Amino acid sequence: MGISARKAQRRSGAGARIVTLTLSPALDIATQVARLCADAKLRCSTPVYAPGGGGINVARAIHALGGSALALFPAGGSSGQHLVELLEAEGVASQVLAIADWTRECFNVVEQASAQQYRFIMPGARLAADEQVQLLAALQALPADYLVISGSLPEGLADDLLPRLLRDAARRGVRCILDSSGEALRQALDVGGIFMIKPNLNELNTLVGGEIGSPQQLASAARQLVRDGRCQTLLVSLGAQGALLVREGLSERIAAPTVRRRSTVGAGDSLVAAVTLKLAAGADWLEAARYGVAAGSAAIMAEGSGLCRREDTEQLYAWLQAYAGD
Where is the Carbohydrate kinase PfkB domain (predicted)? Predict the structure, then answer.
C-alpha cells in the first residue's frame, strides 16, 4: 500500500489546515439480528461497512460538515485496504502508512427485539518499532494548524511516542486536540499545555481519582486541570446533558437539545469534529462548543454507526444559538 496521499479539494468552512491522527483505525461492520441467543445460529442483516477509528471519524465528520481534513493512519491487510477504499469513496483526504499487521475489524450489532446496541471492539493492530518511527516522521512532515489525536492506543506502542509527538507539535505551533482515555490521556496531561482535551465524565472521574457527584465538583475538577497547566481547554462531554467548556476565565455548561436517540456511535467524534472546524474557521470558543454539541446530538439521530449530518447539525446549532440568546 505504501505511504499514499489522497488529495481532497479544500472545501468551504475550513480556514486552517486540520490533520487527524488515528493510531488504532478499524473497519467497522454494522448489522442487526432479531434476538441474541447463546449457541444459536444468528441470522444477521446485510452488513454495512464503514471506516472507523477516532481520528478517521473526526475527518469524516468534518468532511460531512463542509470542511476539509487530512486523516493520517496506519493500515494493513485486506481489511486495511477496504478501509482506505471506503474513505476514498467518501472523498476524505488521507495519508496511509502501510504496516505488516492487519487492520482490526469491529462489530456493531443491534438486537431488533430490544433495540439494544452491542459493540464488539477488537484490539488494534500492532505497530512495529520501525513503523512507529515512520509514522512520527510522516506526521512531522505534514503542515498543520490543528492536530486532532483521537482513539485508543494499540498495544506495543513505545511509551514515549505520544509525548514526543505532542512536544514536536507544540514546537511547530500546532494546536493539539486530544480525545482519548487511559494511558494516552495521562501521558498528554503529563506533557502539559495541550490546546484541548475532551474527556467524558467517566474519564474525568478516573483522572481525578474519585467520583464527581455534582455540577460544582465537575467544574472545580476541570478548572483545576487548567490552573495546573495540564491543558489549556477542557471540553467534558456529558452525553444527553450536553458538555462543559472550561478554560482560563471561562466556564460554561452547554445543554444538549432533545433529539430522538437512534445510536450513540460517533457522537463524541462528531462533537470534536465540529468544534475543530469552527475554531479553524475563526469562531470563538462558545460558538465552537455549541456547534460541537449540535453535531454530537445530530450523530445520535443517525442510524447505526452514522456520523452527524450537516443539515441536522445546522438546525440544532441555530436552536442552541437562539436558546443561548434568551
Answer: 38-308
Kindly report, residue by residue over 17-48, the tens digit of the pLDDT: 999 999 999 999 999 999 999 999 999 999 99
Rounded Cα–Cα distance for residues 292 and 270 (Å): 7
CA 271 to chain centre: 8
What's the pLDDT tens digit per position in 232-276?
Answer: 999 999 988 899 999 999 999 999 988 887 767 788 999 999 999
Half-sphere CA count of 254, side-chain side, radius 13 A: 32
Annotated catalytic sites, by residue? 269
33: left (phi over 0), alpha (psi -120 to 50) or beta: beta
CA distance 100 to 65: 34
**Mind giving me the DSSP string for 188-255?**
HHHH--BSEE--BHHHHHHHHTS---SHHHHHHHHHHHHHTTSBSEEEEE-GGG-EEEEETTEEEEEP
CA distance 294 to 161: 33
CA distance 67 to 9: 10
Structure confidence at residue 1 (pLDDT): 41
Measured CA to CA, the distance from residue 134 to residue 142 in angstroms comes to 13
Q: Where are the alpha helices (DSSP H) in the chain?
A: 54-64, 77-90, 129-140, 161-171, 182-191, 201-208, 215-227, 267-280, 285-300, 310-325
Give pLDDT < 70 ranges for the chain.
Answer: 1-15, 263, 303-305, 325-326
Give dist(CA 12, CA 128) in Å, integer.
38
All three cell numbers of 94: 488521507
Residues contacting 214, CB < 8 A, separation 6+: none
Fold that domain 15-33+44-325 belongs to in CATH: UDP-N-acetylmuramoyl-L-alanine:D-glutamate ligase (3.40.1190)
Is residue 110 classed as helix, strand or coil in its secondary structure? strand
Please state the domain extents for the chain. 15-33+44-325
pTM of the model as a whole: 0.91
